[in-house]
Amino acid sequence: MHNTILTVNEITLSIQGEGTRAGAPCVLVRLTGCNLDCSWCDTRHARTEGDEMSVDDILAHVARLGCGLVELTGGEPLYQNHAAGLLEAFCDAGFETLLETNGSLDISRVDRRVVRIVDFKCPASGESDRILWSNVEQLRSTDEAKFVIADREDYKFARDAVEKHSLDRRCMVIFSPAAGHLDPADLARWILRDNLPVRLGLQLHKIIWPDKDRGV
To answer: pTM score > 0.90 for this model?
Structure first.
């Protein structure tokens, strides 16, 4: 398994920008490729750019960075067949392991030790019809559900999804404003007005490094 090859866009030590671990030092392992094409995607370079690396090489690179928290992201990491094996290898090596996935692919095969951050796509992304809703049944209390919201329609979509699927009873739910599309204050006001059981999430890496889309 450790000789298995994956295509890696980048491996970098950064500050976790989103979710319940926002602000923590984290190694980001960004895999190449994605099955979706979101309108507001900020990592288009990860769709095609990357180098082949073995699982052993990835583990060694991550270990050299000296951080115990690692996140597998993309692109869409589960788009590569051996991503689940890489996640298992991270866990076996003792890393606290996160997976950022776009919610269109089955998460049931992911190691139970992994924190799965599932990004449910709202209409403004252009990909809301690709949501694999059966993933909701797989969510555990250690996971996170995320909605990136670009406008009022997105907010209503996310609000209704939380209610319909009782997402807040399954795991932490995070509403994040799409950068450059929605004022965080507007989203905060909507959440407060509706008394939603969700957390407002801001992308810290875009606040810290507003002009960078790589290495962060």
So the answer is: yes
